[in-house]
Amino acid sequence: MRLEQYAQISNYAMVAATCVLALAFVAHVAEWAFARKVVSDEKELVTSGPTPPAPPVEDEAPVTERFSRVGVTLTILAATLLVASVITRGLAAERVPLGNMYEFGLVGVAVALLTYLALVWKYQVQWAGGVVAAFGLVMLGMSLSTYVPAGPLVPALDSYWFEIHVSAVMLAGAFFLVGAAASVLYLIRARAEAKGNVGAVLRRLPAAAVMDKLAYRVNAMAFPLWTFGALIAGPIWAHYAWGRYWGWDPKEVWAFITWVVYAGYLHARATAGWKGRRAAIFCLIGFVTFLFSYYGVNLFGSGLHSYAK
Amino acid sequence: MNPSTQASELTPRQFVRWMWRQLTSMRTALFLLLLLAVAAVPGSLVPQRGVDARAVQAFFQDHPTLAPVLDAIGMFSVYSSPWFSAIYLLLMLSLVGCIVPRIGVYAKALRARPPRAPRNFARLPGSGSFTTTASVDEVVSAGRQMLGRARIDVVQTGNGTELRAEKGYLRELGNLVFHCSILVVLVGVAIGALWSYRGAVMVTEGDGFSNTLSQYDEFNSGPLYDPDNLPPFGLTVDRMIAEFHSSGPQMGAPRLFQADVTYTERPGDEPQNYEIVVNNPLSLDGGDVFLIGQGYAPVIRVTDANGEVVFDDAVIFLPQDGTYLSEGVVKVPDAAPEQLGFQGFFMPTAVSTGDDAPTRTVYPGAVNPVVGLRMWSGDLGLDDGTPQSVYTLQKEQMTEVLGDDGEPFNISLSPGQVQDLPGGGSIEFVDLQRFARFQIADVPAKSLPLVGVSVGLIGLMASLMVRPRRTWITATTSTDEAGRTLTSVNVGVLDRVPRDETPIDLDAFLRDLQQALPTSNNLKETQT
């Protein structure tokens, strides 16, 4: 097969994966919608008279369950298509497909989806499916806006530090993403718990304390990875490629800011005993700085990391 | 006593202590960390002198009123500004104030024995109990085995035998190592900043460079570096190779940049050959030579109206973008009767689609190189002693030379072509050469920050993954109605991080402990 054909297959697989992931998102939204219906039925029963409320879930729960399963199945399909797209992209470019923002986004979402599916298999975290699919769609959309045809690397990227640096940073980013998702869900659920009004949609989420802990654990894994990727592998490579290990290039500035904010988060969690709300907000600030260093710098700024154009 | 009168009654000594406690508190450290993050932001929005001095100049031209204000508050060199330095120095002070006492506490904890069991195990986050026919000694030895490498004391108390165990000392060690290594990194960065130098130079093929200050196009050095002591190496660019993709979707993208150089590390040394490639610098004693750019340097020969060759040299044309459309200037001070200046562009692969369509360049490789120039005559302004850039033409005292049609005279040359100039003389595009742009830098102690971060990372992982835990096992003998000797065992567990959670593996611990006993005849168990 010719290189152009591989590139073509990769593009088709990418588009197909995006569509399938969109369907998975719809399925999860439907799951939530039906869960909401359960609640309204419950209320009707409660108000309808002295008859003790029969378990109303029986009719609707299987529907909710089915939509959840459809969502996960579609996510598996989307992840498979994405992996196929990544592999054919690598074949087309004859290198590891991590050379530009488009490929970075592609591989990043593939890794995030596979991580999520592994967690579903091990810990039954289907409840996060809708959020994961939504984040994945946004990231894929952002990657599409930076599309470049498959091709070889520019000389500056031709170094094995490139793979080490990029993959460590990307893995850390995937964990930051999961941590941020858990923090968002935590804030929503904790609010409902505080009000004493946990609806049927939120009831599908684990307790707030569980998500608080999950966010901390994931971020605690991501932080050393980020330290390695951005503050060890990055500077070493920068030394060879640009003649200095640290030069306050906008990307470096934001990588540093991200590191500082997450360092603050871990301190707040571990030492100052900031749990729950304040920690979750801290984590989300950190994630915003990460997003900016990943995407915003390339979009708004110039600098040596400007391979987006 | 209200706080304000108390504050006014503080002696200077108390005041210093109060300040110190405030500074070293966790709340202050967190605040300073966030402040550091916020303070780093402007450096990514406003061009920085140390990163891109030309961008700073452009910013001054575009914002003539705003730029001096920003300059006054150090916005063009954020990371060496007093306020940025103040934040991280305070942070370091806070760090030291936090770390030093903790080292003392840790040293004491290392020598301390595990603490005695709390009176009421039910108050612990996790506890359990069971009764067994095994003896107290058997319970204790099974407990020892289960707790493995924890620090263990076995003590006889009024209530029986008590096993005290503590593990996870590595957590705090990792924590201390991580924070100390931040100081190591900072010291390393400071040494690098004070004693380093970094310069950039463009060298045309066939030309040489010797490492002295006057040869650099740009040069920066740390305040404690003496530029007169630059290491005396030198190099000559034999060939600058630039290859681009000539087909496919990435046509025009660079494929290889390589500078073949001959260098001498010290004067008198045997010259050596080296191929400097992007990502593969030439490392010499006292400096690394990096290839960070390249471009075209057409060889231009100018003959004046008297028939004298007044200029014959390679002229560096600075690339403006990825297509290598380049701009350059030729200054001919020796031309008679008047000095001449040429300014224009270079196109590596010029294409003209029609008579009226403007010529443009379509490929960065030199397939159809063309130099396009316009001409000025008069005074170049070189004689009044003010330094001027070789890449700009000062036209204040010059007039543009016009052609017969009254329009500005246009010069367009391919290699080997000669064009006659109005008023006599000629200009020739003799040959096309390339130039290499090198960055030469030496940062002392650059491995110190690397070692610091790496050791810090190991410490960090220990401090995040090791879970310190205290375990107590009490064993008391009693006799039941049937006259059997029984041992009732109580187990209490306290995870020090996280503090208020039920230890998840307590069930497994209790089960394994019972199974480790020689008689598995355990009678009843409870767990809270």
UniProtKB/TrEMBL annotation, chain A:
<feature type="transmembrane region" description="Helical">
    <location>
        <begin position="168"/>
        <end position="188"/>
    </location>
</feature>
<dbReference type="GO" id="GO:0005886">
    <property type="term" value="C:plasma membrane"/>
</dbReference>
<feature type="transmembrane region" description="Helical">
    <location>
        <begin position="70"/>
        <end position="92"/>
    </location>
</feature>
<dbReference type="Pfam" id="PF01578">
    <property type="entry name" value="Cytochrom_C_asm"/>
</dbReference>
<feature type="transmembrane region" description="Helical">
    <location>
        <begin position="128"/>
        <end position="148"/>
    </location>
</feature>
<feature type="transmembrane region" description="Helical">
    <location>
        <begin position="253"/>
        <end position="272"/>
    </location>
</feature>
<keyword id="KW-0812">Transmembrane</keyword>
<dbReference type="InterPro" id="IPR045062">
    <property type="entry name" value="Cyt_c_biogenesis_CcsA/CcmC"/>
</dbReference>
<feature type="transmembrane region" description="Helical">
    <location>
        <begin position="104"/>
        <end position="121"/>
    </location>
</feature>
<protein>
    <submittedName>
        <fullName>C-type cytochrome biogenesis protein CcsB</fullName>
    </submittedName>
</protein>
<dbReference type="InterPro" id="IPR017562">
    <property type="entry name" value="Cyt_c_biogenesis_CcsA"/>
</dbReference>
<feature type="transmembrane region" description="Helical">
    <location>
        <begin position="279"/>
        <end position="297"/>
    </location>
</feature>
<keyword id="KW-0472">Membrane</keyword>
<feature type="transmembrane region" description="Helical">
    <location>
        <begin position="221"/>
        <end position="241"/>
    </location>
</feature>
<dbReference type="GO" id="GO:0017004">
    <property type="term" value="P:cytochrome complex assembly"/>
</dbReference>
<feature type="transmembrane region" description="Helical">
    <location>
        <begin position="12"/>
        <end position="34"/>
    </location>
</feature>
<keyword id="KW-1133">Transmembrane helix</keyword>
<dbReference type="GO" id="GO:0020037">
    <property type="term" value="F:heme binding"/>
</dbReference>
<dbReference type="InterPro" id="IPR002541">
    <property type="entry name" value="Cyt_c_assembly"/>
</dbReference>
<keyword id="KW-0201">Cytochrome c-type biogenesis</keyword>
<feature type="domain" description="Cytochrome c assembly protein">
    <location>
        <begin position="101"/>
        <end position="305"/>
    </location>
</feature>
From TrEMBL, chain B:
<keyword id="KW-0201">Cytochrome c-type biogenesis</keyword>
<dbReference type="Pfam" id="PF05140">
    <property type="entry name" value="ResB"/>
</dbReference>
<dbReference type="InterPro" id="IPR023494">
    <property type="entry name" value="Cyt_c_bgen_Ccs1/CcsB/ResB"/>
</dbReference>
<feature type="transmembrane region" description="Helical">
    <location>
        <begin position="176"/>
        <end position="197"/>
    </location>
</feature>
<keyword id="KW-0472">Membrane</keyword>
<dbReference type="GO" id="GO:0017004">
    <property type="term" value="P:cytochrome complex assembly"/>
</dbReference>
<feature type="domain" description="ResB-like">
    <location>
        <begin position="26"/>
        <end position="496"/>
    </location>
</feature>
<dbReference type="GO" id="GO:0016020">
    <property type="term" value="C:membrane"/>
</dbReference>
<keyword id="KW-0812">Transmembrane</keyword>
<dbReference type="InterPro" id="IPR007816">
    <property type="entry name" value="ResB-like_domain"/>
</dbReference>
<keyword id="KW-1133">Transmembrane helix</keyword>
<protein>
    <submittedName>
        <fullName>Cytochrome c biogenesis protein ResB</fullName>
    </submittedName>
</protein>
<feature type="transmembrane region" description="Helical">
    <location>
        <begin position="82"/>
        <end position="105"/>
    </location>
</feature>
